[in-house]
Design brief:
The complex is a heterodimer.
Chain A lengths: L2 E6 L7 H14 L4 E5 L7 H4 L10 H5 L5 H4 L1 E2 L6 E4 L12 H14 L2 E5 L6 H8 L3 E6 L3 H14 L9 E7 L1 H5 L6 H8 L2 E7 L2 H9 L10 H13 L15 H10 L1
Parallel strand pairs in A: 1-5, 1-6, 2-4, 2-5, 6-7, 7-8
Antiparallel strand pairs in A: 3-4
Helix pairs in contact in A: 1-11, 5-6
Chain B lengths: L6 E6 L2 E6 L5 H15 L9 E6 L7 H12 L4 E7 L5 H10 L1 E5 L7 E4 L2 E5 L7 E4 L3 E7 L2 E4 L9 E6 L3 E4 L2 E3 L10 E9 L2 E6 L3 H4 L10
Parallel strand pairs in B: 2-3, 3-4, 5-7, 6-8, 7-9, 8-10, 9-11, 10-12
Antiparallel strand pairs in B: 1-2, 11-14, 12-13, 14-15
């Protein structure tokens, strides 16, 4: 019996899909059986980021409306033997699926996979409810911007009402250490003190991520990328390893404080 | 019995208006009422039917009070009690109710969430930006107040808002709205509280609370 993890944020454009793709791939690289589920019906992206768009035959809505079996809709990623994707439909909208139907699909997937990574759409409406319905754990993605932190806070409030086995975990994405040093960007300490949930990982802003998503190769496969290391660390922490936070830049100071926050 | 009369009788168009003192114990008031009805004012109170209206002031019009008053009046057959009323509730009873008890809450009031309590509230936890705490009495936050707090809803101008870390998006006390920091002239405040001074919101150190709002709690004495 596997575990379903929803990746959500409230605000759009903070990197939910990128995080889903990379964390999913990283878990697969660590030898786990992973299925990624795109619940952003009508605005699907996860297949594009994974470079699997051209292999879609059936989608989530086809499964729900019983035009195909669940197994038929799953795309098996040929680069990794343990990675599959259940794509969303592009033609329908979020109301094509109900939370109960999602719950059923996710629990069916949990029979066969170690981890089911659910990519949540932006917003707090039907799409969010669908995505959260079948999840056991949640990862909240935010960026060091006030608006993103506000929305993450709202989402955490909503997640606390769901029956999750664990409190949500935080990933801070697109960190630019120079801006934080100058005081132009929210510091990690500030974000953590407002949101008051456990930090799962810090992902620096990295050009490789943009290149990778355009070429359909997840960043984690690139050994030069700093974001890739961050995502691999996040995957290891999901598995329960104690991995220290990597330095955001060579200087210490900020990092020491973050470490202190995380450990103590 | 005090020199001040506990029962005032006034003639009004519809009949007689009895204004009862609301501070003395009820038994004393009734004693004085009976005395007046039977002795000093008996000459005015005999004769044709007279409608009687009773004002209780700030004393609440409970069934018990009403019953004992009606009994006193029934001694005079010509007095018909039409109404027994308290003054409409103003800010002060709210304050009295608020000062009497404090409700404790724990947890984080996150963006989009609201927490309301009738009376004094103590929140152990934070109020995040976008979160709202409201109360008819005082609001005390043992944590960071970063969202909106509205104390003294219903017109209690004496209410205060205090927090370990006072950094709100907006503060409201009764009908006064204030937002930091441009109106207060500081950026961050630790262990401070907001109160109304002549209709304007002001901030001061928590250590001065007992001087500004001495009625908030029992003094620790000397």
């Amino acid at each position: 019996m596997g575990e379903a993890i929803v990746i959500t944020s409230g605000k759009g454009g903070v990197g939910k899909t990128t995080t889903s793709a990379n964390v999913g791939t990283a878990l697969a690289l660590l030898g786990k059986k992973v299925c990624m589920v795109d619940t952003d019906i009508g605005l699907r992206n996860l297949d594009v980021v994974m470079g699997l768009e051209n292999r879609i035959l059936y989608d989530l809505v086809d499964v729900v409306e019983e035009r195909c079996r669940l197994k038929q809709a799953l795309i098996i990623d040929k680069r990794f033997e343990h990675l599959s994707l259940l794509p969303a439909a592009q033609t329908k909208d979020k109301h094509a699926v109900t939370p109960e139907q999602m719950k059923k699909i996710i629990s069916e997937l949990k029979q066969d996979y170690d981890y089911v990574i659910i990519d949540c759409p932006a917003g707090i409406e039907q799409g969010f409810k669908n995505a959260v319905a079948g999840a056991d754990r949640a990862i909240v993605v935010t960026t060091p911007e006030k608006s993103a932190v506000r929305d993450a806070d709202r989402i955490i409030g909503l997640l606390e009402k769901e029956n999750l086995t664990d409190s949500p975990k935080l990933v801070v994405n697109r960190i630019r250490p120079n801006l934080i040093d100058n005081g132009d960007m929210l510091s990690i300490d500030e974000i953590c003190s407002v949101l008051a949930i456990d930090l799962l990982g810090l992902v620096p802003d990295d050009e490789h991520v943009i290149k990778a998503s355009n070429s359909g190769e997840p960043t984690v496969m690139n050994p030069d990328s700093r974001a890739a290391i961050a995502y691999r660390n996040i995957a290891r922490r999901i598995l329960g390893d104690a991995v220290p936070l990597m330095p955001l830049h060579q200087k210490t100071g900020v990092l020491q404080r973050i470490k202190k926050f995380f450990v103590g | 019995m005090s020199s001040k009369s506990l029962v005032t009788i006034k003639g009004i168009k519809e009949g007689l208006l009895f204004v009862l003192d609301d501070e003395a114990p009820l038994t004393e008031v009734i004693q004085d009422l009976t005395y007046k009805l039977e002795h000093t004012h008996s000459q005015f109170l005999t004769g044709p039917l007279v409608h009687v209206f009773v004002r209780l002031g700030k004393r609440s019009a409970t069934e018990e009070t009403k019953q004992s008053l009606i009994e006193s009046f029934s001694a005079r057959g010509n007095l018909i009690v039409q109404s027994i009323e308290s003054d409409p509730i103003e800010a002060e009873p709210v304050l009295a109710a608020a000062a009497s008890g404090m409700k404790t809450f724990t947890g984080i009031v996150r963006s989009g969430q609201t927490l309301h309590h009738d009376g004094n509230m103590l929140l152990i936890g934070d109020v995040n930006p976008g979160g709202t705490v409201t109360s008819t009495g005082n609001i005390l936050v043992l944590g960071s107040l970063r969202g909106l707090a509205h104390a003294g809803i219903g017109g209690n101008h004496e209410a205060v808002i205090a927090a370990s870390h006072l950094r709100p998006t907006q503060l409201r006390i009764a009908d006064i709205v204030s937002r930091p920091p441009d109106e207060w002239g500081f950026e961050e405040a630790f262990m401070e509280f907001a109160y109304l001074h002549e209709g304007v919101m002001e901030i001061d150190k928590l250590s001065r609370l007992h001087r500004i709002r001495p009625q908030l709690g029992m003094s620790k004495g000397e």
